[in-house]
């Protein structure tokens, strides 16, 4: 059974003053994602990647089509989906541990259980020694680790990530990619990852969905047949370079056709 199934999803936004004028942002998008699969959405700016992720999260509605997680319709936000954005969205007056606890308390867990689970998740991302630090005392990479720990704390079925490493420096970004793959392998997650970085998509993913623009739709799907676990050596494999070139070529040809 598919973990996520999307069939003929359409999303429009009103433009201008007339109620009849609409811009189609996503047009009949269909895709399926399997249990424990790691997939990336790539494409030119404005192709609807983030909008699609937001609809899956339940933060935005859609006009037509079906979305199901484990066969159940998505009708709004839910604890079955964890979300990590490029901005860390941490509460600055709370410590790292308290930020994770805050999310857990919102799901109905009591104070003791929330505290225990928060520390477990911070250990998972290597931040147990920084549990009492406030966001302003943490580096960008550490803040994003807290955001990941928070998103995983209530055991979601899907982890949705929208350019989570886009604001990080190159070295920290590589470290976060390696951390994410280790957490994904350990926790048996299903991950949907939005990125502009094709190299990142190839390194992380089982499949890559290239989106076309105006309106947004799925153009091409690439399997990533690279062995796991992936390391720095993976980047030097000929298969890696060839797949990266193919995906980039697909995006560039779409941009030329606009």
TrEMBL record:
Gene3D superfamilies with a match to the protein in the record: P-loop containing nucleotide triphosphate hydrolases
Pfam families linked to this entry: ABC_tran
Domain ABC transporter residue range list: 4-238
ATP-binding among keywords: yes
UniProt keyword list: ATP-binding, Nucleotide-binding, Transport
Listed GO MF terms: ATP binding
Taxonomic superkingdom: Bacteria
Protein family (similarity comment): Belongs to the ABC transporter superfamily.
Name of the molecule in the record: NitT/TauT family transport system ATP-binding protein
């Amino acid at each position: 059974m598919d973990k996520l199934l999307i069939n003929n999803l359409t999303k429009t936004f009103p433009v201008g003053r007339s109620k009849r004028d609409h811009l189609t942002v996503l047009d009949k998008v269909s895709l399926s994602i399997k249990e424990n699969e790691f997939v990336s959405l790539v494409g030119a700016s404005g192709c609807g990647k983030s909008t699609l992720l937001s609809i899956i999260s339940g933060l935005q509605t859609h006009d037509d089509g079906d979305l199901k997680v484990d066969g159940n319709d998505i009708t709004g936000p839910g604890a079955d989906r964890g979300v990590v954005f490029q901005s860390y969205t941490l509460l600055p007056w709370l410590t790292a541990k308290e930020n994770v606890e805050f999310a857990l308390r919102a799901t109905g867990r009591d104070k003791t259980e929330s505290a225990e689970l928060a520390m477990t998740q911070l250990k998972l991302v290597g931040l147990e020694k920084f549990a009492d630090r406030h966001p302003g005392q943490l580096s960008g990479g550490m803040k994003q680790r807290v955001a990941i720990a928070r998103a995983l704390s209530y055991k979601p079925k899907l982890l949705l990530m929208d350019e989570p490493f886009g604001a990080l420096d190159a070295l920290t970004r590589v470290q976060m990619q390696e951390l994410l793959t280790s957490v994904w392998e350990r926790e048996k997650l299903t991950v949907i990852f939005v990125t502009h970085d094709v190299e990142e998509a190839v390194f992380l993913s089982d499949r890559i969905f290239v989106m076309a623009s105006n309106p947004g739709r799925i153009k091409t799907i690439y399997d990533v047949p690279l062995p796991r676990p992936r390391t720095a050596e993976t980047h030097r494999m000929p298969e890696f370079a060839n797949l990266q070139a193919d995906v980039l070529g697909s995006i560039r040809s779409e941009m030329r056709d606009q």
